[in-house]
Amino acid sequence: MMIPACRLADLPRGEAHRLDIDPPVSVFHTDDGEVFAIDDTCTHQDASLADGWLEGCEVECPLHASKFDLRTGAVDSPPAKLPVRTHQVLIEDGMIYVQPSTDAPNLPPCIVARLAGGPA
Length: 120
Ligand code: FES
Description:
The protein is mainly beta. Helices cover 6% and strands 37% of the residues. The protein has a 6-stranded antiparallel beta sheet, with no helix packed on it. Strands 5-6-7-8 form a 4-stranded antiparallel beta sheet, with no helix packed on it. FE2/S2 (inorganic) cluster (FES) binds at residues 42, 44-45, 47, 61, 63-64, 66, 79-80.
């Protein structure tokens, strides 16, 4: 199912838009005009990648500076070890849509524990 994210015209280059779905997904508009969608939560700890820094096709986590490749979700810089999921993006009539991945997300241990009802 394609989820409408926002209008491309409302997402300036170099910025991100977070979708409040579960788990949250963020759409990034690069300086080169490309649009990518990845899981918003860093795989290291509970940080929003939409609040991070976008440089080229990489986003840097605002908490401990891990870097993720927006094209593949791969970790380019530690301390994160696991990749973030990537999601398919479609732009139609100026609207950005996201097709959520069916793969299991790599959520950080603190989030997994919270979802399981344990201490955060
Ligand atoms: S929370 Fe992202 S690198 Fe630690």
